[in-house]
Amino acid sequence: CNNRIVIAQRKHLDDFVRGRIIVRLECGRTQLEVSEELGIAQSVISRLWQRFQDDGNVSRCYSTGRPRVTTPNEDRYLAVIAKRNRRSTASDLSRQLSSATGTTVSRQTVYRRLGHIGLYARTPVRCVPLTATHCRLRLAWNREHALWTPQQWSCVMFSDESRFSLQSDSRRTLIWRAPGTRYHQKNTIERHRYGGAGWLVWGGIILGSRTDLHVQSVTMTGHIYRDVILEQHVRLFRGAMGA
Protein backbone atom coordinates (compact mmCIF):
# COMPACT_ATOMS: atom_id res chain seq x y z
CA CYS A 1 0.00 0.00 0.00
CA ASN A 2 1.37 3.38 -0.96
CA ASN A 3 0.83 5.90 1.85
CA ARG A 4 2.17 8.91 -0.02
CA ILE A 5 -0.08 11.94 -0.07
CA VAL A 6 -0.62 13.41 -3.53
CA ILE A 7 -0.86 17.19 -3.64
CA ALA A 8 -3.53 18.14 -6.20
CA GLN A 9 -2.86 21.87 -6.15
CA ARG A 10 0.50 23.58 -5.90
CA LYS A 11 0.87 26.01 -3.04
CA HIS A 12 3.74 27.98 -1.58
CA LEU A 13 5.22 26.97 1.77
CA ASP A 14 5.49 29.56 4.49
CA ASP A 15 8.68 29.96 6.51
CA PHE A 16 7.26 28.00 9.47
CA VAL A 17 6.64 24.88 7.37
CA ARG A 18 10.05 25.24 5.73
CA GLY A 19 11.63 25.32 9.19
CA ARG A 20 9.77 22.16 10.25
CA ILE A 21 11.08 20.35 7.17
CA ILE A 22 14.70 21.35 7.84
CA VAL A 23 14.47 20.40 11.53
CA ARG A 24 13.21 16.91 10.70
CA LEU A 25 15.89 16.37 8.07
CA GLU A 26 18.61 17.52 10.47
CA CYS A 27 17.29 15.02 13.03
CA GLY A 28 17.99 12.19 10.60
CA ARG A 29 14.59 11.71 9.02
CA THR A 30 14.58 10.79 5.35
CA GLN A 31 13.05 13.02 2.71
CA LEU A 32 10.45 10.35 1.95
CA GLU A 33 9.38 10.17 5.61
CA VAL A 34 9.06 13.95 5.87
CA SER A 35 7.11 14.03 2.61
CA GLU A 36 4.58 11.46 3.85
CA GLU A 37 4.26 13.09 7.27
CA LEU A 38 3.68 16.65 6.07
CA GLY A 39 1.93 15.86 2.79
CA ILE A 40 4.49 17.70 0.69
CA ALA A 41 5.99 16.42 -2.56
CA GLN A 42 9.42 14.88 -2.12
CA SER A 43 10.82 16.98 -4.98
CA VAL A 44 9.92 20.15 -3.06
CA ILE A 45 11.63 18.88 0.06
CA SER A 46 14.68 17.86 -1.96
CA ARG A 47 15.06 21.33 -3.50
CA LEU A 48 14.55 23.00 -0.12
CA TRP A 49 17.20 20.80 1.52
CA GLN A 50 19.67 21.42 -1.32
CA ARG A 51 19.18 25.16 -1.02
CA PHE A 52 19.68 25.02 2.75
CA GLN A 53 22.94 23.17 2.27
CA ASP A 54 24.14 25.66 -0.38
CA ASP A 55 23.49 28.99 1.35
CA GLY A 56 21.81 28.19 4.67
CA ASN A 57 18.63 30.04 3.70
CA VAL A 58 15.15 28.55 3.38
CA SER A 59 13.03 31.71 3.01
CA ARG A 60 11.14 32.15 -0.23
CA CYS A 61 12.71 34.55 -2.74
CA TYR A 62 10.19 36.98 -4.18
CA SER A 63 10.86 37.97 -7.76
CA THR A 64 10.32 41.59 -8.77
CA GLY A 65 9.85 40.66 -12.42
CA ARG A 66 11.88 41.67 -15.41
CA PRO A 67 14.11 44.71 -14.77
CA ARG A 68 12.75 47.94 -16.20
CA VAL A 69 14.59 48.86 -19.40
CA THR A 70 14.07 52.63 -19.30
CA THR A 71 14.69 55.17 -16.58
CA PRO A 72 12.16 57.85 -15.55
CA ASN A 73 14.21 60.44 -17.46
CA GLU A 74 14.07 58.30 -20.61
CA ASP A 75 10.30 57.90 -20.19
CA ARG A 76 9.95 61.69 -20.03
CA TYR A 77 12.15 62.02 -23.11
CA LEU A 78 9.83 59.66 -25.02
CA ALA A 79 6.84 61.78 -24.00
CA VAL A 80 8.53 65.01 -25.10
CA ILE A 81 9.50 63.78 -28.57
CA ALA A 82 6.08 62.15 -29.07
CA LYS A 83 4.31 65.44 -28.27
CA ARG A 84 6.78 67.40 -30.38
CA ASN A 85 6.08 65.26 -33.46
CA ARG A 86 2.73 63.56 -32.95
CA ARG A 87 2.94 61.67 -36.24
CA SER A 88 6.09 59.79 -35.23
CA THR A 89 5.69 56.03 -35.21
CA ALA A 90 6.70 53.83 -32.29
CA SER A 91 9.68 52.63 -34.33
CA ASP A 92 10.75 56.25 -34.95
CA LEU A 93 10.56 57.05 -31.24
CA SER A 94 12.51 53.90 -30.39
CA ARG A 95 15.30 54.90 -32.79
CA GLN A 96 15.40 58.46 -31.45
CA LEU A 97 15.65 57.19 -27.88
CA SER A 98 18.45 54.81 -28.83
CA SER A 99 20.33 57.58 -30.64
CA ALA A 100 19.99 60.02 -27.73
CA THR A 101 20.55 57.72 -24.74
CA GLY A 102 21.90 54.44 -26.09
CA THR A 103 18.91 52.53 -24.66
CA THR A 104 17.24 50.17 -27.11
CA VAL A 105 13.56 49.39 -26.58
CA SER A 106 10.89 47.61 -28.61
CA ARG A 107 7.81 49.18 -30.18
CA GLN A 108 5.65 47.54 -27.52
CA THR A 109 7.72 49.20 -24.79
CA VAL A 110 7.18 52.59 -26.43
CA TYR A 111 3.41 51.97 -26.51
CA ARG A 112 3.41 50.99 -22.82
CA ARG A 113 5.52 53.93 -21.65
CA LEU A 114 3.41 56.48 -23.51
CA GLY A 115 0.21 54.75 -22.41
CA HIS A 116 1.24 55.20 -18.77
CA ILE A 117 1.16 58.99 -19.25
CA GLY A 118 -2.07 58.95 -21.29
CA LEU A 119 -0.75 59.12 -24.86
CA TYR A 120 -2.19 56.65 -27.36
CA ALA A 121 -1.79 56.15 -31.11
CA ARG A 122 -5.07 57.21 -32.74
CA THR A 123 -6.31 58.18 -36.20
CA PRO A 124 -6.33 61.99 -36.61
CA VAL A 125 -9.47 63.94 -37.46
CA ARG A 126 -9.46 65.37 -40.99
CA CYS A 127 -11.20 68.67 -41.63
CA VAL A 128 -11.58 71.28 -44.36
CA PRO A 129 -9.17 74.20 -43.81
CA LEU A 130 -10.84 77.55 -43.07
CA THR A 131 -9.14 80.87 -43.64
CA ALA A 132 -9.56 83.91 -41.41
CA THR A 133 -12.00 85.34 -43.97
CA HIS A 134 -14.13 82.18 -43.82
CA CYS A 135 -14.33 82.40 -40.03
CA ARG A 136 -15.19 86.10 -40.07
CA LEU A 137 -17.98 85.72 -42.63
CA ARG A 138 -19.48 82.72 -40.84
CA LEU A 139 -19.50 84.54 -37.52
CA ALA A 140 -21.14 87.60 -39.11
CA TRP A 141 -23.83 85.41 -40.72
CA ASN A 142 -24.56 83.68 -37.42
CA ARG A 143 -24.93 86.98 -35.57
CA GLU A 144 -27.21 88.37 -38.28
CA HIS A 145 -29.60 85.41 -38.05
CA ALA A 146 -29.37 84.69 -34.32
CA LEU A 147 -32.86 86.10 -33.58
CA TRP A 148 -34.75 84.64 -36.53
CA THR A 149 -38.13 83.05 -35.80
CA PRO A 150 -39.21 79.53 -36.85
CA GLN A 151 -41.42 81.12 -39.53
CA GLN A 152 -38.41 82.81 -41.08
CA TRP A 153 -36.32 79.62 -40.94
CA SER A 154 -39.14 77.65 -42.59
CA CYS A 155 -38.31 79.38 -45.88
CA VAL A 156 -34.63 78.45 -45.76
CA MET A 157 -33.13 75.27 -47.17
CA PHE A 158 -29.82 73.91 -45.91
CA SER A 159 -27.84 71.57 -48.14
CA ASP A 160 -24.59 69.72 -47.82
CA GLU A 161 -22.60 67.06 -49.61
CA SER A 162 -20.23 64.37 -48.40
CA ARG A 163 -17.63 62.51 -50.39
CA PHE A 164 -17.02 58.84 -49.67
CA SER A 165 -13.66 57.65 -50.90
CA LEU A 166 -13.35 54.14 -52.28
CA GLN A 167 -9.74 53.93 -51.17
CA SER A 168 -7.97 54.98 -48.01
CA ASP A 169 -5.95 58.18 -48.11
CA SER A 170 -4.66 58.03 -44.55
CA ARG A 171 -1.89 55.52 -45.29
CA ARG A 172 -2.45 54.37 -41.70
CA THR A 173 -1.21 57.70 -40.37
CA LEU A 174 -1.60 57.83 -36.59
CA ILE A 175 -0.91 60.53 -34.04
CA TRP A 176 -0.14 60.45 -30.33
CA ARG A 177 -2.93 62.07 -28.32
CA ALA A 178 -4.61 61.88 -24.94
CA PRO A 179 -8.23 60.74 -24.44
CA GLY A 180 -10.76 63.55 -24.85
CA THR A 181 -8.55 65.62 -27.18
CA ARG A 182 -9.77 64.19 -30.50
CA TYR A 183 -10.95 67.55 -31.88
CA HIS A 184 -8.15 69.74 -30.54
CA GLN A 185 -6.52 71.71 -33.33
CA LYS A 186 -3.13 70.09 -32.78
CA ASN A 187 -4.72 66.66 -33.32
CA THR A 188 -6.46 67.46 -36.62
CA ILE A 189 -5.19 67.37 -40.18
CA GLU A 190 -6.51 69.97 -42.61
CA ARG A 191 -7.35 68.53 -45.99
CA HIS A 192 -9.52 69.71 -48.87
CA ARG A 193 -8.46 67.36 -51.67
CA TYR A 194 -9.14 63.65 -51.79
CA GLY A 195 -7.50 61.55 -54.46
CA GLY A 196 -8.82 58.38 -56.01
CA ALA A 197 -12.28 57.17 -56.93
CA GLY A 198 -15.28 57.93 -54.76
CA TRP A 199 -18.97 58.80 -54.55
CA LEU A 200 -20.52 62.16 -53.70
CA VAL A 201 -23.82 62.28 -51.82
CA TRP A 202 -25.88 65.50 -51.71
CA GLY A 203 -28.96 66.26 -49.64
CA GLY A 204 -31.04 69.20 -48.44
CA ILE A 205 -33.27 69.86 -45.44
CA ILE A 206 -35.93 72.42 -44.63
CA LEU A 207 -38.02 72.83 -41.52
CA GLY A 208 -40.25 69.75 -41.36
CA SER A 209 -39.02 68.07 -44.55
CA ARG A 210 -36.01 67.00 -46.60
CA THR A 211 -34.99 66.29 -50.19
CA ASP A 212 -34.10 62.98 -51.75
CA LEU A 213 -30.41 62.10 -51.72
CA HIS A 214 -28.50 62.67 -54.93
CA VAL A 215 -25.58 60.31 -55.55
CA GLN A 216 -22.99 60.72 -58.29
CA SER A 217 -19.58 59.30 -59.06
CA VAL A 218 -18.19 62.18 -61.14
CA THR A 219 -16.58 65.34 -59.84
CA MET A 220 -19.00 68.08 -58.84
CA THR A 221 -18.54 71.03 -61.20
CA GLY A 222 -20.35 74.34 -61.45
CA HIS A 223 -22.37 73.17 -64.44
CA ILE A 224 -23.41 69.93 -62.74
CA TYR A 225 -24.37 71.80 -59.58
CA ARG A 226 -26.52 74.24 -61.59
CA ASP A 227 -28.15 71.74 -63.96
CA VAL A 228 -28.62 68.83 -61.56
CA ILE A 229 -28.67 70.08 -57.98
CA LEU A 230 -30.34 73.47 -58.39
CA GLU A 231 -32.68 72.66 -61.28
CA GLN A 232 -33.67 69.06 -60.50
CA HIS A 233 -33.63 69.17 -56.71
CA VAL A 234 -33.65 72.60 -55.09
CA ARG A 235 -36.08 74.39 -57.42
CA LEU A 236 -38.54 71.50 -57.67
CA PHE A 237 -38.42 70.86 -53.93
CA ARG A 238 -39.01 74.49 -52.99
CA GLY A 239 -41.86 74.66 -55.49
CA ALA A 240 -43.49 71.58 -53.98
CA MET A 241 -43.11 73.06 -50.49
CA GLY A 242 -44.59 76.39 -51.61
CA ALA A 243 -41.48 78.25 -50.50
TrEMBL record:
InterPro entries: Cro/C1-type_HTH (IPR001387), Homeodomain-like_sf (IPR009057), RNaseH_sf (IPR036397), Transposase_Tc1-like (IPR002492)
Main subcellular location of this protein, as a coarse class: nucleus
GO biological process, one term: DNA transposition
CDD domains per UniProt: HTH_XRE
Matches recorded under Pfam families: HTH_Tnp_Tc3_2 (PF01498)
Protein name from the UniProt record: Transposase Tc1-like domain-containing protein
Native source species: Araneus ventricosus
Cell location: Nucleus
Domain Transposase Tc1-like: 75-145
Gene Ontology molecular function: DNA binding
Cellular component aspect of the GO annotation: nucleus
